[in-house]
Amino acid sequence: MALEMRARCERCETAALPPGGPARICSYECTFCEACAAAMGQVCPNCGGELVPRPRRAVPAAANTGRVGVIGVGEIGRALVDGLCAGAGEPPEILLSPRGSRTSAELAGRYPNVRVCADNQDVVDGSDVVVLAVRPQDRTEALAGLRVGGDRVVVSLMAGVGIDELRRTLGSGVPLVRAIPLPAVRERRSVTVTYPAHPVVDALFDGLGGALPVADEAGFGVFSALTGTLTSHYGYLATLTAWAARQGVPAEAAERYVRGLFQGVARSLGDDSRSLHQLAGDHETPNGINERIRTTWFDSANAESLTEALDALLADLRRSG
Question: Quick one: signal sequence residues (predicted)?
Answer without folding.
Answer: none
